[in-house]
Automatic annotation (TrEMBL):
Protein name according to UniProt: HAD superfamily hydrolase
Gene3D superfamilies given in the database record: 3.30.1240.10, HAD superfamily/HAD-like (3.40.50.1000)
Molecular-function GO terms, alphabetical: magnesium ion binding; phosphatase activity
Record-linked SUPFAM superfamilies: HAD-like
Alphabetical list of NCBIfam families matching this protein: Cof-subfamily (TIGR00099), HAD-SF-IIB (TIGR01484)
Amino acid sequence: MIRLIAIDLDGTLLTDDKRISARNKQVLQQAKAKGIKVVLCTGRPLAAITPFVEELGLNQAGDYSITFNGGLVQKNDTGEILSKSTLPYEDIQRLIGLMQSLDLPLDVLSEEVVLQLPTSTNYQSIYAELNKLLTFQPTTLDGLKKDGLYNKVVVAYHQAYLDQQIAKIPESYREDYEVIKTRSNLLEFMPKGVTKAFGVAFLADYLKLSPAEIMCIGDEENDLSMIEYAGMGVAMANAVDAVKQAADVITLSNQEDGVAEVVEKYAL
């Protein structure tokens, strides 16, 4: 029996115009009423998902969110942090050097603030266009604090150039960090071992649930780990091939209420 459903947002629960459809909302509210934990599991910070949490009524005692690609697990009603993983200052400096060599813009997420760093003289980050709910703060390279809190590093730029430069990243960086594309125009660096599966597994252990009792739904590369972890891994019809290949079930697309379809069929 499914007792927890972890759901990605962009390309999964949300339509292309970033809305939750009426059917998705209705079915997820039915799942919660049945006692199933409905958990938004996203690369975004909590501030960028709060409107969706409130719309779904997931802001009560017993509701949880997994943000920063598994780097933060929180209680939605109080904001209490159950698990937090961050990058040290030295790693931020190392990634700054990499982006300077690749001529790519760099954004560093520090809780609810995005620190915009001038690592590229030719290309400007498009992260503010992708996440309008966040606070953006231009920051100098020597303005970073050694004791600062750094959740993840983001490179946001148009796909063609981004993919061209990703191919140049030395393998050593993939060995030392989780290097994942969360959208076609978004590359992220997380602490090694910190993935959506890491966050879902932590919450499952906290709630004393087994993987067999968990459904995970997603579409992108950063969803792959939780799709593989879950007893029922679900890929959207619009998912990348790797996610589809790993999934137990392929549902309809994010434009066709795919989340509602699979939850109704297998959880309700």
